[in-house]
Write a structure and sequence with these properties.
This protein is an alpha/beta fold. It is about 40% helix and about 20% strand. It is built from 13 helices and 15 strands.
């Protein structure tokens, strides 16, 4: 819509995320960022306009800039905090997917005591990707759109009403169908993202099945209810500063020495040794929860979405899962569960005093000459 409005002359300037400005540029609209310098430190907002507008109507640009500044002043006023957070949740549910983090981040930015950077290009997916368009639809509470039978795309839905059949279909698709049709390596490039740990379509059960299908034999050890096998895909579940591995890091088991009670994992070319007593830090990661995937990206994502997951189905959850994929997304399950997730946008407010504490700290250190 912004591209069309610029082309038709109906719009001279545009206020939105800096990512939107990047998309306009990718689509051939050579827009310029005219964000006032004093507001450049605040992330997520930007002003864009055509070069001709700046040359031909400087007054319009100045007025637009003043309106932008007033909007920021409103957002940074403590009295308007709850209204701003409510607006963020309504317009961009992913910004509130972790309400506790959202409140802390908002307060940190509002305090004006920390440096803040801009994300101004879309790197994960192509700007015209159906992953992108469906992410926007989900944000607006609309059901995602998938290719008709025979059409190609990068975002698909596969119907599977029965949980048992859905489980078997997940295994077949990861092991055979997706590699054959889309040429993704099932161990290195395909990630299963599921809403829950427990249940037939939960991460624990999916991992047992995928280990059996993709890595059925090899040296192994069983600890803490999990069988670890050479070649397994595993994930670190807590920060270990001594080993320099962190919560969410994914690697492959290189070797298991039962005599030495040692298991070695390859994390992106770096070998990390674990005593068997430390294996409670590792879980299988053929399938992981959507929550654990936040901040990560994968070439291909398969998302089981079933009414078994009823308790956790949320708009922000499906948005997060969908946008972890760089090239391909397959949602497998029921339309009922998917539609429930899209329409449910509940969240819980968190009250922090972080902004006030940061300001107090900065004023104190400045007063002490530090």
């Amino acid at each position: 819509p912004a591209t069309a409005a610029f082309h038709s002359g109906e719009m001279d300037a545009y206020s939105a995320s800096t990512a939107d400005a990047a998309i306009l540029n990718q689509r051939g609209m050579k827009v310029r960022d005219i964000t006032p310098p004093e507001y450049a430190r605040f992330f997520g907002n930007g002003l864009a306009t055509m070069g001709d507008t700046i040359r031909n109507d400087r007054e319009l640009v100045e007025k637009f800039g003043r309106a932008f500044a007033r909007g920021h002043a409103f957002a940074l006023d403590d009295a308007n905090r709850e209204a701003v957070l409510a607006h963020l949740k309504a317009g961009n549910p992913q910004e509130g997917e972790d309400a506790e983090f959202q409140s802390a981040l908002f307060d940190a930015v509002r305090s004006k005591t920390i440096p803040v950077g801009h994300l101004n290009e879309v790197f994960r997916q192509a700007a015209t990707s159906r992953i992108i368009t469906n992410a926007h639809r989900i944000n607006q509470g609309k059901a995602p759109e998938f290719p008709e039978e025979g059409e190609t795309g990068d975002c698909y839905f596969v119907e599977a009403d029965d949980p048992g059949k859905a489980l078997a279909l997940v295994g077949k698709m990861v092991k055979d169908s997706i590699p054959k049709k889309f040429h993704f390596n099932p161990m290195e490039e395909i990630q299963i993202l599921t809403p829950m740990q427990k249940g037939e379509l939960g991460a624990r059960n999916l991992n047992v099945m995928m280990q059996r299908l993709l890595n059925p034999s090899g040296d192994q050890v069983e600890r803490f209810g999990i069988t670890y096998r050479t070649g397994d895909k595993v994930m670190q579940t807590e920060n270990d500063y001594d080993k320099e591995v962190y919560n969410g890091d994914i690697g492959r088991v290189l070797s298991i020495d039962n005599e030495a009670s040692e298991l070695v994992v390859n994390f992106d070319g770096r070998k990390v040794a674990y005593d068997f007593r430390e294996l409670d830090e590792l879980v299988l990661s053929y399938a992981i929860t959507i929550h654990k995937s936040q901040g990560s990206e994968y070439p291909c994502v398969l998302i089981p979405m079933h009414m078994q997951h009823f308790v956790l189905l949320q708009r922000s959850l499906i948005y997060t899962a969908l946008t972890r994929a760089k090239k391909l997304v397959i949602v497998l399950g029921t339309k009922k569960a998917l539609n429930l997730a899209v329409t449910r946008a509940e969240s819980r407010d968190r009250i922090t005093t972080l902004a006030e504490r940061l300001k107090e700290y900065v004023y104190k250190t400045e007063g002490d000459g530090k």
